[in-house]
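Supplementary notes for students who missed Thursday's class. We covered one full example, reproduced here. Read the sequence, then the structure, then the short commentary at the end.
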Amino acid sequence: MRLTLVCVGRLKEPHWRDAAVEYLKRLGPYARVTVTEVHDRDVTADEAKGLAAEAADVLPAIPDGATVVALDISGRARSSEGFAEWLSAHALAGRSHIVFVLGGAAGLHPDVLARADERLSLGPMTLPHQLARVVLLEQVYRAFRITRGEPYHR
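Structure (token representation):
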């Protein structure tokens, strides 16, 4: 399975980078994972303009033919087991390339959300986008462990 994370912004603090690198390493035996970072914009002065500029970078970074999942607080929340079932079902259905799109501080532009095949919520709480990336990587890793019946998910 191929997984791509298209992320607005980079992981600036070492603790976020270290956590992400650790989960990417752990995911190695399960999937080919790539991370594409696009430049985040200052959205404080003009949020709409900043989001549009981010979308102009995000949309071309999404590979053709992939299933696109936008992380969005209004998306569908799943339990870890439910997420594992969802990921496994996509693999079994031949949708072997999934792209997760993570927005910056202001979320994602409506054009990016419209491009998504579905929206995924990590829960009703607002998370910093850097933490959301680490949580997503951990949940993907957990999903593979659950699917294979390997210990970890408790």
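Commentary. The mean pLDDT is 95. Residues 129-147 form the longest helix (19 residues). If anything here is unclear, bring it to office hours.
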